[in-house]
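Quick one, T. Sequence first:
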Amino acid sequence: MPLTSTTRHEAPGRAARRHFDSYLFDLDGTIYLGADLLPGAAELVATLRAQGARVLFVSNNPTRSPQDYADKLTCLGIPTGHEDVYTSLVATTAWVRKHAPGSTVFPISEQPLVDALVAAGCTISDDPEAIDLVVASYDRSFDYRKLQVAFDTLFVHGRARFVATNPDRFCPFPGGRGEPDCASVVAAITAATGVACEAVFGKPDPAFLEIIAAETGLDPATTVMVGDRLSTDVAFAHATGMTSALVLTGETDRATALRTPAAQAPTLLLERVDDLLQPAGHLWDSARREVRA
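Structure tokens:
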């Protein structure tokens, strides 16, 4: 049977059968796109919470703090506390505390990561002779000066470690637009220095789920990861034993989903995020190319 997405019930206020104990949702391209909430997202989250499911938001975007994302979700009609938001900032600072405590860091990033690193006990510097750790990130102020500092640190002095906040090539915007993300910055630094990242945080790194599970107690076997990217969201689920649900409102289109090999395919394919409100028998299993009973 060909891969097919779910067919939505259109009746408002529909009741949902609870499929999982915990739901992890990506943000950009899944819950909202740019400044706009995607259709059905608020109803879905409200329904799941009313059923007693744990709802968390997990983003690779390091340009905002968990509180910033919680505030945005609340303004869009999904009341959320910062404790329910996990970003690549959380994963990055957790690694730094464990593997490079007290380091002098050169963050190629926007202010939220700088603030998070300072809070984690790091010293911020752009002196190549003093830097212990270069952290590349999604940085819309990335320029030649920053590339030069990274080059002098990693190539000329050769004494620092090199890591990145997330593996994303670009951040999706409405209308098929986007901005170069962390992987683009990493590519420039690696091309100049010949030095590869020793660690890349956020989804799909299994260590990210370990952080979330340690704080929330969620069980991957009863958790679904919902997102719009095969390379991060779906891969994250595969790497950690979660069920995956790919939604076609962000990066991945139907043609790409149809071409995905079964080993990398999501468990569920959704036209939009509130297709999760379907009864279990109406959800399509994209790995098996059949209705999930």
